[in-house]
Amino acid sequence: MNQRGGISLYLVFSLAAAVAAGIGAYAWIRKHKPAEASADDRPHAVTTAKPAHHEAPPTPAPQPEPAVEPTPAERPMSLAERRAEDPVVDPNSRVSPVFGLPGIDGAMERSSVDRRFRARAKLLQQCWDHSASDEGTVYVTLAVEPNGHIKQVTLSEGWNESFQSCVTSLMNAMSFSGTRDGHPAEVVQPVAFQYLD
After folding, report:
1. What is the pLDDT of residue 100?
2. Residue ranges of domains in the chain
3. How large is the greatest C-alpha to C-alpha distance in the chain, in angstroms?
4. Is 0.90 surpassed by the pTM of this model?
5. pLDDT of 51-106, one tens digit each?
6. 137 has which bridge partners?
């Protein structure tokens, strides 16, 4: 057989196989069609109904939204707070208070701040002992005037009133030599307290 005859024979068999497959698929689909779908296959009369006029439901009166309590915005950390380093507290040591490195925003010497706080270590410990506060680290923030006087003392949150007033009066009695550049400065001194007994 020549090549032309072979191709013709191939096409006839391919076409017959495709038709047989199509008929088989059609028969299978028809046989396995769900019962409710077959009812839809029957011809039915087409009626057009006039659309009913529906009134829109009444819109409810707008209700006021419940008041949302504003969350207090956290204030950004100051430069002095970012520069302050927490004290390293050894739970086995018999030392309290323990001082971290002070954070300073302004022209003040770190050693000057360190000396003044360490000189008041016993008094700070007494403030803590008498206040019955829990162990922890307090961040004492000082606003220092250009002449070295303390303008404002602020303690981190979570300390009782007795401890805060004692530390505030102790810090207000302290002063520094003036700032080197004649501008105000801020100091944040972390101080950790722990039980010694």
Report:
1. 93
2. 3-37, 80-193
3. 120
4. no
5. 555 666 677 777 777 766 666 656 677 888 888 999 988 878 888 899 999 999 99
6. 192
- SS3 annotation, the chain: CCHHHHHHHHHHHHHHHHHHHHHHHHHHHHHCCCHHHHHHHCCCCCCCCCCCCCCCCCCCCCCCCCCCCCCCCCCCCCHHHHHCECCCCCCCCCCCCEECECEEECCCCHHHHHHHHHHCHHHHHHHHHHHCCCCEEEEEEEEECCCCEEEEEEECCCCCHHHHHHHHHHHHCCECCCCCCCCCEEEEEEEEECCCC
Total count of residues recorded for the chain: 197
Compute the distance between CA of residue 97 and CA of residue 137 in angstroms, rounded to an integer.
9
Which CATH number does the domain 80-193 belong to among 3.30.1150, 3.40.50, 2.60.120, 3.90.550?
3.30.1150
CA torsion angle 64 65 69 74 (round to 10): -130
- Burial tier of 81 (Cβ tally within 10 Å: 0-12, 13-18, 19+): middle
126-134 contacts, C-beta under 8 A, 24 or more apart: 126/166, 127/163, 127/166, 127/167, 127/170, 128/96, 128/97, 128/163, 128/193, 130/162, 130/166, 131/159, 131/160, 131/162, 131/163, 131/166, 132/160, 132/162, 133/159, 133/160, 133/163, 133/193
